[in-house]
Amino acid sequence: MKKSTIWILIIVMSVTLLGLLFMQIMYIEKMVKMRNDHFRELVTLSLYNVASNLERDETKHFLDNHLDNSQSKIMNIGGGQFSGDIDFGRASSFGAASGSRFGGDNGLTSNFGVDRSRQEILKNEYLYQKALLNEVILNILEHASDRPIAERADSSKVSFYIDLELQRNGLKMPFEFAIVNRSATIEYCTSGYEQNMKNEDNVYSQILFPKTKDSNVTLNVVFPTKSDYVFSSVKFMLPSLAFILLLMALFVFTVILILRQKKLSEIKNDFINNMTHEFKTPISSISLAAQMLDDPAVVKSPSLLKQASTVIKDETKRLRFQVEKVLQMSMFDRTSATMKLQEVDADSVIYSVVNTYNLKVEKFGGTLTANLNSDDPIVNVDEMHFTNVIFNLLDNAIKYRREDVAPVLTVSTSNPDDSHITIVVEDNGIGIKRDDLKKIFEKFYRVSTGNRHDVKGFGLGLAYVHKMITLFGGTIKAESEVGKGSKFIITLPLYK
After folding, report:
1. CB 345 within 8 A of CB 378
2. Which end of the chain is more exposed for a tag (fewer CB within 10 A), N or C?
3. What is the mean pLDDT of the chain?
4. What pLDDT does residue 100 have?
């Protein structure tokens, strides 16, 4: 599959999943807002009814008091009415007797007078009751605020009304409340009010007795379980949201696998295309040494003959190392990779590698120098892998050499302290950018070489070097400056 096709699929799937997630979140947010608004409306209605109930109780209190204070007057007025009825009754009897005595017209006149008297009595009673109510209302308006708020809004009565009105509106849930005066001081409150009022959005207020003079008493109510009530309407959406998130996680995981597999596929192709290059150096060295053996002058010179045979032996060994490296890289992520740690003279191994690799460096007109200055070069390493580490570093120095100058390579050893040895491989190559310097030891990472197309590899060399040095119990770091060269510093513990 083409890389562009993969990215198109990734973009389409990403937009689809993100759009679905966005719509789900917006729907949940809208549901929560609607539920919250509905809750606020019900609470506002309930608290308004509570205030109305308290006002009704206030009116009844003043009416009862006024009636008690005016009881004697009412009784006197009632007695006068009773006497008037008796008089009217007498007048009626008298009128009836006179009518029988004097004729029918006088009887009709008498009955009409009685009806007018009764109407006057009813009118007087209506006017009195109206004046009584007006007086009660005036007393409420003028003197209601003089009563202690604890009497006007008794805590048990307020709690009863709140619970009653909430249940009437379908809100069966716990609540805490407080009565606050005009100076914003709490007159009294329930035990859990102050603990739950920290969230201002959870406080609902209602002014009490708004029609009385200088009244500014507020009822504040909080609901500890409001969030449970509000989010109960969207709980059924949470599983679908979780499934979407899980689907997104699986999608991301799948994308990572696809990209990784594509990268591995590219590495596989590079491996097939570049295998020849990886084995080119030892094969060419062996071929060069074999040509030297064909030269009669070399055969007659014991030193040249020995040098050629040594090159053949070392390059054959290096070829075997290359094969072993490929096999070992197949087990790169396994911590149980076979390691044969033993006592090894680091200077001796490095000298052997330099002597073998010098032929290739001279081919490019360069020099390879070994400054083996360590007093104690004995380390505990796997000789094959340690040799391969040095080969890799030297091979990289040649790969990334500058075209305008001859390559100059230096390998040096020293003892920074009594328990470690330091190995430095330095070159005058093209150098490494600062951003790349942080990633060069990562598996499959390859530094960009600009317009150079002759540099091939798997991006495994430095990762292999780093892993081996780590398994040896040492450290490796790189220092580089673009255009001036690179330096790799290895520190290994000495064999004890």
Report:
1. yes
2. C
3. 78
4. 39
Q: What is the DSSP string of 179-198?
A: EE-TTS-EEEE-TTHHHH-S
Which backbone phi and psi does 410 adopt, to 5 degrees?
Answer: -135, 130
Q: What's CA 39's distance to the chain center, in Å?
A: 29
Tell me the DSSP string of 128-149. Answer: HHHHHHHHHHHHHHHHGGGS-H
The one-letter amino acid at 54: L
Amino acid at 9: L
Q: What are phi and psi of 414, to 5 degrees?
A: -160, 165
DSSP 8-state code for residue 372:
E
Report the pLDDT value the prediction gives residue 141, as an integer from 0 to 100. Answer: 53
Q: Which amino acid is it at 226? A: K
What DSSP state is assigned to residue 15? H
pLDDT at 9: 83
The pair of structure tokens assigned to 148 is: 């202690």
| CA dist., res. 45 & res. 161, Å (int) | 12
State the Cα–Cα distance between residues 272 and 284, nearest whole angstrom.
19
CB of 212 within 8 A of CB of 202?
A: no
Report long-range pairs for 256-261 (Cβ below 8 Å, ≥24 apart). Answer: 258/6, 259/6
For 376-416, what is each residue's pLDDT tens digit?
Answer: 999 999 888 899 899 889 988 988 888 888 999 999 999 99
Of the candidates 141, 203, 150, 225, the one whose C-alpha atom is nearest the C-alpha of residue 181 is: 150
Match 């449970």 to its residue by tokens.
228
Structure tokens at 11: 């973009």
Measure the CA–CA gap between 279 and 51, rounded to whole angstroms. Answer: 95
Q: Which residues are CB-neighbours of 438 under 8 A, at least 6 positions away?
A: none
pLDDT tens digits for 130-163? 665 666 565 555 555 566 777 777 888 888 999 9
In terms of DSSP bridges, do strands 367-372 and 408-417 run parallel, antiparallel, or are they unpaired?
parallel
Q: Within 232-345, where are the H helices?
A: 238-278, 280-294, 296-300, 302-329
Give me the pLDDT at residue 424, please.
96
Whole-number Å distance between alpha carbons of 400 and 304: 31
Dist. CA 286–CA 284, nearest whole Å: 5
Structure-token pair, residue 285: 């060295």
pLDDT under 50 in the chain at which residues?
74, 80-108, 335-336, 450-455
CB of 439 closer than 8 Å to CB of 445: yes
> Given this model, what pLDDT does residue 302 score?
83
User: In angstroms, rounded to a whole number, what is the distance separating the alpha carbons of residues 247 and 259?
Assistant: 18
The three-state secondary structure class of 422 is strand
> CA 366, CA 407: separation in Å to the nearest integer?
5
Block residue for tokens 């959870």: 202
Output the CA angle 36-39-43, nearest 5 degrees: 140
What does DSSP assign to residue 431?
A: -
* Residue closest to 473 by CA, chosen among 439, 443, 496: 496
Supply the pLDDT for residue 490.
96
Q: Which of 440, 486, 479 has the alpha carbon at shortest distance from 462?
A: 440
Whole-angstrom Cα distance, residue 234 to residue 29?
Answer: 9
